[in-house]
Amino acid sequence: MRSSTIIACFTLAFLAATISQASPIVIYNTGVDDSGVPLADNAIDPHWTLSGVGAAAGQGPNAIVATQAGGWPVDVGVWMVDNGTSTWLVPSENTYGPGATDGTAIYTFSTEFTTPGDGQVTFVGVQSADNGVVAFDVDGVPGTFTPVGFNAFADFSITASVTGTSHTLNFAVHNGTGEVNPDGPIGFRAEFTTAEFIPEPASLALLAIGGLALLFRRRW
Could you report the per-residue pLDDT of 121-169, keeping only the tens digit for each? Predict the structure, then answer.
């Protein structure tokens, strides 16, 4: 094999390794603007939407920001106070929404993100909710999370294969399950510590094979 071919092969291998490295995904914590700065109380979050099923049907699509400036329940000892990283999202300016003792009041907080194409996404972070998160997924692929209430954060994580370029991340939150008075405040809050994308390995293999085929064609 000629030296030029060897060099080209090493170049292709280097490019494939470079492309296969994780790249960041643009995704936003709850309740922040395009710069990641927390929004004002009762503002509409531009990145997250809200939908409901069961007793919560008809809620949304706007996810409304709730901060300590709006008073209870965002207060010391109740819901965690907002910080410079995230704020709460709620269905109404007074934070109230329909609940159900049988668990049918499910509020889904969703955000969209894009990737260059097929591959693998990884998200890691912390979440808190009233009454609590009951499901978490990316394009229908479930992730893992630690159940927690509304006065602390708990972990969530997911690594999922995705196809195409447009994707949706969803958190389902219940309201009122097992409570005597199920209607009441409902809120969700999330902060991301990792948001990464790795291209589909098969695509990288095709790139390398195509490059080698071109080299050998030129050689012959």
Answer: 999 999 999 999 999 999 999 999 999 999 999 999 999 999 999 999 9
Residue 49 lies in a domain: yes
Instruction: Please state, in angstroms and as integers, the Cα–Cα distance from residue 152 to each residue in 48, 170, 188, following that order.
Output: 21, 20, 12
Of the candidates 165, 186, 35, 38, the residue with the CA atom closest to the CA atom of residue 109: 186
Amino acid identity of residue 3, one-letter, is: S
pTM: 0.84
Q: Is the pLDDT of residue 7 over 50?
A: no
Which residue range is the domain that position 41 belongs to? 22-199
Task: Assess contact for 197 and 119: CB atoms under 8 A.
Answer: yes
**In a domain? residue 64:** yes
Residues 109 and 101: beta-carbon distance below 8 Å: no
Nearest to 208 by CA among 8, 16, 7, 22: 16
* Nearest C-alpha neighbor of 9 from the set 212, 209, 205: 212
Indicate whether 98 belongs to any domain: yes
Cis-peptide, bond into residue 24, ω within 30° of zero: no
Per-residue confidence band for 11, with pLDDT thresholds at 50, 70 and 90: very low
